[in-house]
Amino acid sequence: MLTDWIPLLRDLRHYHREWLSRDVIAGLSVAAVQIPTAIAYATLAGFPPEVGLYASMLPVLVYALFGSSRQLVIGPDAATCAMIAALLLPMANGDLVLYLQLSAALAITAGAIMVIGGFTGMGFIVNFFARPILIGFLGGIGLSIMAGQLGKLFGIAMVNRDFGPSLLEIAHRLGEIHILSLLVGGATLAMLILLRRAAPRAPSALIALLVAGLAVFLFGLDQQQVKLVGEVPSGLPGFSIPGLGYEGVQGIFMNAVGLVIVTFTSGMLTARSFAARNGYAINADQEMRAIGFANISSGLFGGFAVTGADSRTAVNDASGGKTQLVSVIAALTTAVVALFLAVPLGRLPIPALAAVLIFSAWGLLDIAGMRHLRVIDRFEFRLSLYTMVGVLVVGVLPGVVIAISLALLQVLVKIYKPADTLLGIVPGEEGYNDLSLSEDARPVPGIVIYRFDAPLLFFNADYFKARVLSLVDSTTPLPRWFVLNAEAISQLDSTGAQAIIDLIGELKTRGVQLIIARPKLYMRKYGKPMGIGEKIGMENIFLSVHAAVDSILQREGRAADAMLNP
Q1: In the beta sheet, which residues pair with residue 421?
Q2: Angle between the 310-318 and 19-45 helix axes, to the nearest 10 degrees?
Q3: Contact indicator for 499, 535 with CB cutoff of 8 Å
Q4: How far apart are alpha carbons 308 and 322 in whole angstroms?
Q5: Fold for domain 420-564?
Q6: How many CA atoms lie within 13 A of 390 on its CB side?
Q7: Using a CB cutoff of 8 Å and minimum separation of 24, what contacts does 131-134 make?
């Protein structure tokens, strides 16, 4: 159905009249935040200011049609702009025309990848970008942005853009600070902080930039070397295909893949959080297609890569927006400003825009999240920290690659050396449970009951064998029975099956009988051809731990009730 492809049509069919005022107010509120931040983000990426406005028009409308989120607002984003600059500025080598072509081609290529991914069910990739990686990545981007904007805040024309070199350059050029520029930028930053605390729902960026622009105009500070944005051409973007050719697209393809990971994951996390808050679900594949279509339209009509903007989405939600009509109104308002109010936009002071970017970048630092990770999981905390350092030291895209590699390594480490559990009798609990649950818990005499909490595969089979034999050898007196609770062994391959067969023989040399409890159905695949059942004995395979222990006690002439209630 058409409404499945264009969710906005479905929402409009069930539209309530009382929603209109909320959507209009929310749309104007979003535009009030979107317009100044779009210009700021364009300057962050090294684009002319009008390009930021172009990226906030048609892409926003396109997403409004195809997106499944009712709150998400698409547009320029600090992390995306920083990534574009890091990837493409070295390739452009100072050629603005080539840079614009590269950025448009990057947006179109990334958008095409997302559209294809959405149609082929690849939306699930958002689940592979772990939260610690995202915290570290955004933190690294935030610190990079702040370091990169210090020159504009101080009125210094910087040579370096990278985090470390730019800080060193600032340190060596402190004597060149332009005091008036610093005063304008510092006052703007202070105003942003005060507005956030006193009036969190107010369009703080718009208010602060208007005040800063008015102050510069009234006191003639532009005549005293306080730099302004400069002329902003009025009008709407035109259709244009970047003429890079096949080889040019090949050159940016891997950059586009990295951009897809960042833009889609960032947008989806924002969309999911606000969807959960408002009690509805979103479709990851449809979101991937929608964000892809938005990026293609941005590249074809004068913009650059866009993603879900958390600040504008939060304004939308706080203003009571009900549908994507909010995005339609915000996009149209931006178009009106680009047509008729371009001249005032050119009077905005550069140090004030730098203050807006520094303020926005500070919001990317999730210090509370990192503290929480440090408490609950030291490895994830280090993963987040390594990601942040990677982004700062080796760059945005290599930092992402390092972070994802570390995340995969984390998974492999956890599977290679997983958690395991010794089971026994826990007072007050039925059956056989984790011995660590109570100080009064005790094992069943003569029996080791062991649960291996991971798949048993080729890369952890040796660890599994060594762990089992270590437990047997460290038990005093030596147990006569070893019960392997296989319920958590969710996968098994031929190497894992061979490890079980090897254990049968090695345990027998110690006078210990291996028992398997709760085997999965997959064991039939490798168990029958490799003869596990014959080697261990079918009488030693049970559907539950309780049945296995009862059988052992019966064989030894012990009463199960006496064991459970001594």
Answers
A1: 451
A2: 160
A3: no
A4: 17
A5: Transcription Regulator spoIIAA (3.30.750)
A6: 23
A7: 131/369, 131/380, 132/373, 132/380, 132/381, 132/383, 132/384, 132/387, 132/407, 133/383, 133/384, 133/387, 133/403, 133/404, 133/406, 133/407, 134/265, 134/266, 134/269
Between the alpha carbon of residue 485 and those of residues 134, 283, 424, 473, 490, the distances in Å are 36, 38, 12, 19, 12
* Helices assigned H by DSSP within 278-322: 284-300, 310-318
Task: Compare 125 and 96 and report the one with higher pLDDT.
Answer: 96
pLDDT tens digits, residue range 447-476? 999 999 989 988 899 999 999 999 999 999
Structure tokens that stand for 274 in this block: 């606000």
Percentages of the chain per state (helix, strand, coil), in multiples of 5: 65, 5, 25
Cα–Cα distance for residue pair 63/308, rounded to 1 Å: 10
Mean pLDDT of 56-65: 95
pLDDT in tens, 300-327: 999 999 998 877 888 788 778 889 999 9
Return the H-helix or E-strand segment holding 449.
strand 447-452
| 435 CB-side CA count, 13 A | 12
Tokens for 41, please give them: 């983000």
Phi, psi of 531 (to 5 degrees): 75, 30
Cis bond leading into 90, ω under 30°?
no
Joined tokens for residue 23:
């959507």
Q: Where are the domains of the chain?
A: 18-195+203-409, 420-564
In angstroms, the CA 481 to CA 538 distance is: 15
| CA angle at 42 for the pair 40 and 43, rounded to the nearest 5° | 65
Instruction: Answer for the pair 262, 269: CB distance below 8 angstroms, yes or no.
Output: no
Amino acid in position 185: G
Element (H, E) at 409: helix 396-416
| Lookup: tokens for 494 | 């031929």
Which tokens is 285 given? 């594949």
* CB of 164 closer than 8 Å to CB of 172: no
Question: How many helices (H) and strands (E) in the chain?
Answer: 26, 8
378 SS3 class: helix
Structure tokens at 17: 């009249």
Say if residue 449 is exposed, middle or buried (CB neighbours under 10 Å; 0-12, 13-18, 19+). Answer: buried
Residues of the chain with pLDDT > 90, as a percent, come to 41
Asked if pLDDT for residue 521 goes beyond 80, the answer is no
What single letter denotes the amino acid at residue 24? V
Radius of gyration of the chain (CA): 30
